[in-house]
Structure formats: structure tokens, C-alpha cells
Amino acid sequence: MRKDETKVWHNPELAPFARAPKSGSTTRSGTTPQDSRVAKEHRAALEALFAPRREPEPEGSGKNGKNGRDSTPKPGRIVLAPPPQSDPRATERQRLLSKLLAVEGRPHITKAANEFLGAGFTFPDDQDVHLKLLEHSDESRVREALSSLSSLLVGELPKRRAVLESRLRRIEEFAEDESTRDAAAQLRRQVSGRPDTQNQSAQ
Fold this sequence. Notes:
Blueprint lengths: L1 H8 L23 H18 L37 H15 L3 H13 L8 H7 L5 H17 L5 H14 L3 H15 L4 H6 L1
């Protein structure tokens, strides 16, 4: 009897689950893996059918889910046409004039002024420019500056009166040409408000 009972324990018909089911065999629930996959797909389809529908967000009204930045389209940027290329001559003139106004000392002023004239430009009627030219080493340029300043100061007040009077005194004292010294003295009297003694004596 014990031998028969031992055989019963190993009988595959009485213990069908002792061995692993082969491919395509049924599971304990009596379903095949294929039936289980079909059931899952069916369940997923039902869940999708009865799940509450979400209204799609209008395009551009939300934020980008990836980085959270606002994806609202911004108004188009107005692109202005590039400005026309400036006149290279005008640019060169401005550069040389700025250089003249920036330098100090007679040698540097003389060099900058000659460079400006050598490029074919003429000095503008500006007090600061002609005040610089009073330091030119060529007295003919100094006399031209004195004449221009005399005309400008008829209708304008001197911008840098102390500097102007100081340079005029130095020209009166150290200029080699007498006409240069006389022009400087006359302009200094005009700036200081004193009458022109030469014109009174001539009358």
C-alpha cells in the first residue's frame, strides 16, 4: 500500500501542477497567456471609453509641459530697415575734427589742424575750434582764427572767456608778426568790453 501511495503522489494526473506548464498551456485559472493579453486590451479599451474626456487646451494658451515656460505666441517683432550708410567723407571729417578738439599743446594742435586741412576740409565757425587754432604754430592760421572769433563774438558771448583772454595776451606778447599782435589786442579789447582806441583815434 505504501508503494502505491508513493506512486499516487507522483501520478501526473493527480498532481497536474507539479510540472511547469509548457508554452501554450493553460494557467491555473484555465486561461492561456493569449487570453490574458486579450482581456487586458479589452479592459484598457473600456477604461478609455468610459474615462472622462478632457477638453483640449487652445493652442498657445497654456505652458509648455516640458520646461514650464509660457508658450503664448508673442506679437511679431518689427524689424526696421538698416540706416543708410553714412557719407564716409562726413565720418572722416568728424573724426579729424574730434581729434583736433581733443589734443593739447602747440605741436599736437598744429599737426591735427594740418591733417584736417590736408584732407580737404574747412574749419567750422565754432568758438572751440578757433580757440584751439590760436595755439597753431603758423601765425597765418592764428590770424584767421582771430578774425573768425571776432566775427563770432559780435553776436555770441565767449564760451571760455578766461582761456580766450589768456591766449590773446600771450599772442600779444610773443607773436613775431606785428599784425598778429595787433589782431590779438583788438580782439581782447572786444572781449573785455573796452572801446577800440585805434578806431577812436582815427575818427
